[in-house]
Amino acid sequence: MTREEATQILQQYTKSESLLRHARTVELVMRAYAQKLNQDPELWGNTGLLHDADYEAYPDRHPNVVVELLRERGEEEMAHAISGHYSHWGVPHDSLLDKALLGCDEITGFVVACAQVRPQRLSGLEAKSVLKKLKQASFAASVDRNEVRLGAELLEVDLAAHIDFIIQVLQPHAEELQLTPISSEAS
């Protein structure tokens, strides 16, 4: 599957700006991990891009709609990873792709949430600040902290190093992601 095909699928089901941004951030992180781990960046990036594609249109059937669509297209690797990107669904994490998607989804969303509450956004954001926010249950309360920890364990990476990697991947895309520093000057 090409990125263009994956983008078409995403845009067919997802209209929310925040969900589109989340899809893009997970895509970027997954592509970077694929390169780092000598895997297929297109496969990994498209998996990240599509992991929540049906969430807005079919919240009660998520992720089954996109998983079925991918299986019909012969994209079993992507379908399996997406079907298990939340550990409570009970899908085994057999491949490195499966583990990476679970490992990148929640924490990437959390890093973005941390950036959004800072005037400097991604600029200067450090893992220690993100780790501190992880301890605040009221901050981004919908993020499952156990999934964050499990994801790092499955990827066999230190959580702080994982967070630093994510920040470094997202920083060059800050403008596209609308995560550039807020100007202190009056507009």
Automatic annotation (TrEMBL):
Pfam families linked: HD (PF01966)
Keyword Cytoplasm: no
GO molecular function, one term: hydrolase activity
Residue stretches in coiled coil: none
Boundaries of every HD domain copy: 20-90
Gene3D superfamilies given in the database record: Hypothetical protein af1432
Keywords: Hydrolase
Superkingdom to which the source organism belongs: Bacteria
Record InterPro entries: HD_domain
PANTHER family hit by this protein: METAL DEPENDENT PHOSPHOHYDROLASE, METAL-DEPENDENT PHOSPHOHYDROLASE
Protein name: Metal-dependent phosphohydrolase
Species, as recorded: Rufibacter tibetensis
